[in-house]
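S1.2 Input.
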Amino acid sequence: MAVTIRSLVHDTTASTSLLTQLGMRDEMVWRSSVPFDGGRFEHPPWIDDPRQSGFADIRAWPISECDFATWWRGPMLTYADTDLDRAWFVLNTANFDGGAHVDPRLPDAYRSLAREGGLKPLRINSAGQHYPDSSDPVPSALRTICTEVVTSIEAAW
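S1.3 Output.
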């Protein structure tokens, strides 16, 4: 998913994304499952409710609309002194963690979040007890980002 999203939207000095080549990326309205307020998105792109499982149909969530730059680079979470945005999730996964490359050493903040359970949000088990969740939130974030891309393209098409 990360490599496909990167190919669709990420421009560099050496490459131009598919949606830019089609004249769509900067012209279309981008849909976000996370509300944008005060210069930041209100939370990261995954289920953040300890009573819910990690899967939910985000197409039913309230949709916030914004331009591409806000959608791609708008901060969602600060972790290990790093502002995490959609670009951070997509590019770290695509460039280092099995998307297009598998690097033996991951960037520190990404490794801590994805491999070491750095967030440790509290969840509630079936007995009603709280426990720290050390699972990797990156796949859930990428699934949400992918669905946002699809719904944005569908609305623009």
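S1.4 Remarks. The chain is about 35% helix and 15% strand.
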